[in-house]
């Protein structure tokens, strides 16, 4: 049979390239470092002992690459496989390849190193002859099929909150998701509890039957349905809220707020952002209409009283929309009392562009002579090129790459933090230009920068013991403590819990220069006892100072 053999120099280059994920997991695809064979010397070789063709089992394409699977040949001997992507016009027009060992039966080909989405894919067995040359057998072609992919939703961002002695209400920005999960715990609870789930159209929740004058923690995350499973987004920040005192003498606001005026609207082909004047109120409700009909108004969101703008997204180009806002207060039963709606604002989205062309920026190079390597961080520098920004990638396994950050186009250095001591890492960077749709057009990736972080066996001296100043300020439900700074990375503050008969950490302060802390939600005419200690990071954990002397403070009477 007729077979192709890659010349010895080209083969050595292929074997020196790592990063083909032979066993990559479905949620962690490794990029391919394939080498172009265009213009290289190929030699014809006859060898009837080469293995028969392997069986191409499947090739499924998602948004990032192609997952290839095959079965081993049933006859003949072989030492490994060559997996290749061939240009639709043939190997003379383009060929990318990678060599894997004989026990490998799957691989993932990642697009962001080469534009091979429309190419043909093959797996070919090879043997090594007595001269050390690779002799290739019969190729098996993959039948590539597309698969639907579901991406995780974004992180929930809170936009406002309110409280009474027994309730907490939260507002957040709407995400593209199927629903939200709400987790909840009191200050003294060790574990989170899931209160339940809400539909993806919700942007407000009210939590009732809470204890007065008690601190609660709330967090949320969004999800999308992915078949029978849920694909979760990241947790929101932890919202910390202390309910009002049951004996509070504050008179609730019951009068309707004043009128709101929409002051400006900024439009694009698929979004509209509106602005309004701030007034005295508890919050705002936003309504939206895509037809102009009186029955077609749709409630969009509650936003906090500090918010004075809102952006509507996923709109149709050259379509007219109507928007209106009203402010609201809450009565003693926490029911909303609404002001008048604004005069409805009519806005038309801009005309869309059918084709947008952005040129890929030039390939950048990492300046290894300026790199700074620590035990838990690595700083890299690169040469500037004309672009909108740079994408930074890191690899700590030798084959799985992770997008770490994107920085602006005028930045030429980045520090990778929270790394493992005495550990190998690979880094790469590429310049990108942005499309109006927020997608990017990337230039070539830089050559990899490979280094090992330093050993963390470094003695970090215990910080000095901080001490509270004798002076402090207080009200009936709050105290403010002050202390002398020490050389450290931060402070932990604790308060004695008489019910639990134990010290409870009530605050973490990052940085040595913060020397004051206010604690609210306290009971009137009550004595509280605090203590603190400083800490320093040592690469694998923290080194603590001794505890300060106890500080006893008493709140004022009502």
Largest sheet: 6 strands, antiparallel
Average predicted local confidence, pLDDT: 79
What's the domain count?
A: 5
What is the CATH architecture assignment of the largest domain?
Sandwich
Between the first and last Cα atoms, what is the distance in angstroms? 98 Å
Let me know the number of strands: 44
- What is the subunit organization of this protein? single chain
Strand content: 35-45%
Summed up, the helix count is 1
Helix content: under 10%
**Unreliable parts:** 1-48, 248-253
What name does CATH use for the topology of the largest domain?
Immunoglobulin-like
CATH class of the largest domain: Mainly Beta
CATH homologous superfamily placement of the largest domain: Immunoglobulins
- Rg is 31 Å
- Write down the overall geometry: globular
Word description of this protein:
The chain is an all-beta fold. It is built from 1 helix and 44 strands. It has 5 domains: about 1-145, Sandwich (Immunoglobulin-like); about 160-240, Sandwich (Immunoglobulin-like), CATH 2.60.40; about 260-350, Immunoglobulins (Immunoglobulin-like); about 370-450, Immunoglobulins (Immunoglobulin-like); about 475-555, Sandwich (Immunoglobulin-like), CATH 2.60.40. Helices cover about 0% and strands about 45% of the residues. The strands form 11 sheets. Strands 2, 6, 7, 9, 10 and 11 form a 6-stranded antiparallel β-sheet that branches. The chain starts with a strand and ends with a strand.
